[in-house]
Design brief:
121 residues; mainly beta; Rieske Iron-sulfur Protein; 0% helix; binds FE2/S2 (inorganic) cluster
């Protein structure tokens, strides 16, 4: 395992995606409302989009056409290409793909060392 200081904690605004390099791996970081820092591989497991161009939002759900509800208890990272949403808590897609599989982002462990954000690969 290798430890990489990838940025400063002050450079991670809540609710934004921040790209970084952890060794040779391109990753994306996000800071949650509770202050937790999440790190994921930078490419989408669906078709490889660069997730740094995605966005963070609350989970939206629809039981019927023209009715959308927002679940503020679940933040997701939305892929910029086809809109798959991945839970920030687990990295797992909130809906299955067309083959019935739940795609999952590769997660990295994060340590906070003073003001440094350290990612373990
Ligand atoms: S490449 Fe990410 S949803 Fe398709």
């Amino acid at each position: 395992m290798a430890r990489h200081t990838v940025c400063r904690l002050k450079d991670l605004p809540v609710g934004k995606i921040v790209p970084a390099n952890a060794g040779r791996a391109r990753i994306v970081l996000s800071r949650t409302e509770t202050g937790e820092v999440k790190a994921f591989a930078g490419r989408c497991p669906h078709q490889g989009a660069h997730l740094e161009f995605g966005c963070i939002s609350d989970l939206t759900q629809a039981e019927r056409p023209n009715e959308v509800s927002v679940d503020k208890s679940c933040s997701v990272l939305r892929c910029p290409w086809h809109g798959f949403e991945f839970s920030l808590a687990t990295g797992q897609a909130v809906v299955a793909d067309d083959r019935g599989h739940f795609l999952k982002l590769r997660r990295y462990n994060v340590e906070i060392d003073g003001d440094d954000v350290v990612v373990v690969t």
